[in-house]
Amino acid sequence: MRRFVFGAGLALLFTGGAGAQQFPILDAVANKVIQKYQNSSCPQLMAERDQPKGPEEQRAIQLLHDDSQMRQEFIRRVAAPIASKLFECRMIP
Prior knowledge:
Strand content: under 5%
Helix content: over 70%
Structural class: mainly alpha
Number of strands: 0
């Protein structure tokens, strides 16, 4: 379910015609990703990290690889909350 929501949100981000300068959809997707990390327990995050990615999530990740401006903005928005949660869960040093 989590991967579907994430993948569908990122797919919407790119198929909805959002470019690097249109941030309302990026805001919504970034906020969903942040909420997912903030609301997930450490055991949930650990269990999900090795699961295969769905096709929508793979496509969205590829699009982030291909669009450096969009990737930079997405990472700028989600990096601190995700890193903080991973640190709390002892998933990073």
